[in-house]
Amino acid sequence: MGSTNGLVAAKGKQPLFSFGLISDVQYADIPDGRSFLGVPRYYRHSILVLQRAVKEWNANKKHKFVINLGDIVDGYCPKDQSLSTVKKIVDEFEMFNGPVYHLIGNHCLYNLPRSKLLPLLKIQSFGSHAYYDFSPVPEYRFVVLDGYDISAIGWPQDHPKTLEALKFLRQKNPNDDKNSPTGLVGLERRFLMFNGAVGKEQMEWLSSVLQEATKLEQKVVICCHMPLDPVASSNEALLWNYDEVMNLIHRYTCVKLCLSGHDHKGGYSIDSHGIHHRVIEAALECPAGTDAFGYAEVFDDRISLYGTGRMLSTDIYFHSSADLR
Predict the structure, then answer these.
(1) If DSSP codes are grouped into helix, strand and coil, which group holds residue 322?
(2) Are the C-beta atoms of 49 and 293 separated by less than 8 Å?
(3) How many Å apart are CA 231 and CA 238, to the nearest integer?
(4) Which of 79, 52, 72, 59 has the alpha carbon at shortest distance from 18?
(5) DSSP 8-state class, residue 4
(6) In sequence order, what E strands does 117-251 have?
(7) Which of 92, 88, 83 is nearest to 20 (CA)?
(8) Tens-place pLDDT, residues 165-218
(9) Which of 77, 127, 168, 196 is most buried when burial is the number of CB atoms within 10 A of its CB?
(10) What pTM was estimated for this model as a whole?
């Protein structure tokens, strides 16, 4: 990529594989607008960002797959256009010459229920769950979390998961508008309706996957639409139970990187256990002619993220437990 930010590839050593990355396209055929914080959003332009991304990924000819970190269509998309618009963006992703792994985000669920959304995204699910894992090479495993497992959006209104989420929000957020953080302080500000949680069954599944990865001596990349570390993210964008999820992940040494979207400005941190957290900058917030997408080259000892436009490049070197003592 001619406009790649920052990194210079290490000479000589070839990556095990590479893959494309994009997040928060949030396309809609509506005029530009602003977020609740006043940040401009370019709803019609974002499809052009995606098209340029796919063109770049295909030109590379080596990327094994693409990961979309969620929110492909915006919640302001007119609801009579939701199905056709989701199909339109999925079709753009399908122009990539390889598999595309999708995560679901809150804006996806504003548009379509899980029963319609997951088949369109080719997420092979059981019971409408959207968590899964895959291993592109024997040395690595990618684990995709369903951050809206416990959520007030996406499930039927009378579904136990909806009722559990609404009860949780009533306990944690005193505002009538459960998307408002008014009066909430610090990390409490994550208790908003546009976020969600990983449920008990998924936690058990995650533990079993990490056990298996440990036995196979695989390095693991966790993908979740919502960020899992407060240092990398705004408090308002965090998974409700990020702390529980990270406590589980920290029991294992196999996890090296957590990739997220949702917090559109992007972010990066290394947590107390040496796990890297990278929140990818949103394609939605690119003015005309600018971009936010990239790709990752994966090595045995590091992952190098190469960003285009608003997506910053990041060289992620893995820490051993000995390095953190």
Answers:
(1) helix
(2) yes
(3) 10
(4) 59
(5) B
(6) 132-137, 140-144, 219-223
(7) 92
(8) 999 999 999 999 999 999 999 999 999 999 999 999 999 999 999 999 999 999
(9) 196
(10) 0.95
